[in-house]
């Protein structure tokens, strides 16, 4: 695992955006796995700025997001479809048919999980997967206890995750109870993984990732089994993890 320690949110955004741009420069085309949440917002901003300066194009990029809430329409401001369009896709040159998120409103949610996996495979698999980490060590919406052999599946969200995400909704009752997420095994199939960690509240989860035992209770520890993981962490989270 390669650890890069940076200063603050701006440092993290710049380092992560540069990493992604360098990744894209080395290839004619790439499949990116993307994340939502507050941590990558600055990275998307930075990528948009670099795109506007002519430093990067996404015309040959396909993207697959990690997860989506069950039951929210794409136009719902809390859906991850909406987040990705607003904060990233509508500002760059990625063609509409090249970005993908699980369909949380699919009639048959189980079938949607299989379709999503199949599409990832047909597109050639994920080259670079961007990840954040939950305070409980989750990655994607894979909560503590999720099997390391899990593929894309439907999950019941932990109360702690619903509480953490309630800040985006009017009330906690509005936070969906279920989501579709890529599984741990699906995530580990990415050729390279880039994990972003910011803020002291992530210290405990980071400490488990760096120094704890690899175990399903802390989903992020699965990353220690992957041969190419880069962690960009701000000083606050790094110090809190010691
Ligand atoms: C989002 C996702 C989640 C978040 C995690 C951290 O697509 O998969 O695992 O990365 O909950 O969220 P923030 O960045 O809001 O602290």
Coarse structural class? alpha/beta
Overall helicity: 25-40%
Largest sheet, if any? Answer: 7 strands, parallel
Bound heterogens, unique = fructose -6-phosphate
Total of DSSP H or I helical runs spanning 4+ residues: 8
Shape annotation: globular
Q: Calculate the terminal CA-CA distance, rounded to whole Å.
A: 17 Å
Report the uncertain regions: none
Q: Briefly, what CATH class?
A: Alpha Beta
Q: Major sheet: order of its strands? A: 1-10-9-6-2-3-5
Q: Give the total of beta strands.
A: 10
Domains (count)? 1
Instruction: Assess the beta-strand content as a share of residues.
Output: 15-25%
State the CATH topology.
Answer: Rossmann fold
Mean pLDDT: 97
Rg for CA atoms: 17 Å
What is the N-to-C succession of helices and strands?
EHEHEEHEHEEHEHEHEH
CATH architecture: 3-Layer(aba) Sandwich
Topology:
Elements: E1 2-6, H1 8-25, E2 30-34, H2 41-52, E3 61-65, E4 67-69, H3 80-87, E5 99-100, H4 109-122, E6 128-131, E7 153-156, H5 159-165, E8 178-181, H6 184-188, E9 192-197, H7 203-211, E10 229-234, H8 235-240
Parallel strand pairs: 1-10, 2-3, 2-6, 3-5, 6-9, 9-10
Antiparallel strand pairs: 4-8, 7-8
Helix pairs in contact: 1-2
This protein binds fructose -6-phosphate.
């Amino acid at each position: 695992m390669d650890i890069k320690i940076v200063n603050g949110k701006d440092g993290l955004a710049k380092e992560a955006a540069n990493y992604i741009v360098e990744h894209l420069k080395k290839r004619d085309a790439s499949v990116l796995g993307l994340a939502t949440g507050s941590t990558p917002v600055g990275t998307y901003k930075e990528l948009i700025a670099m795109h506007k300066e002519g430093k990067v194009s996404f015309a040959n990029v396909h993207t697959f997001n990690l997860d989506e809430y069950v039951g929210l329409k794409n136009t719902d401001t809390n859906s991850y479809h909406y987040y990705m369009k607003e904060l990233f896709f509508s500002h760059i040159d990625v063609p509409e048919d090249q970005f993908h998120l699980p369909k949380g409103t699919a009639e048959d949610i189980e079938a949607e999980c299989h379709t999503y996996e199949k599409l990832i495979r047909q597109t050639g698999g994920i080259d670079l997967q961007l990840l954040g980490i939950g305070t409980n060590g989750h990655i994607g919406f894979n909560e503590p206890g999720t099997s390391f052999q899990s593929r894309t599946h439907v999950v019941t969200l932990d109360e702690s995750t619903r509480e953490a995400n309630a800040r985006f909704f009017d009330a906690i009752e509005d936070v969906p109870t279920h989501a579709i997420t890529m599984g741990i095994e699906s995530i580990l199939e990415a050729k390279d993984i880039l994990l972003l960690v910011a803020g002291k509240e992530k210290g405990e989860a980071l400490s488990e990732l760096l120094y704890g035992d690899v175990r399903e209770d802390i989903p992020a520890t699965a990353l220690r089994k992957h041969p190419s993981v880069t962690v960009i962490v701000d000083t606050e989270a790094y110090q809190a993890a010691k």
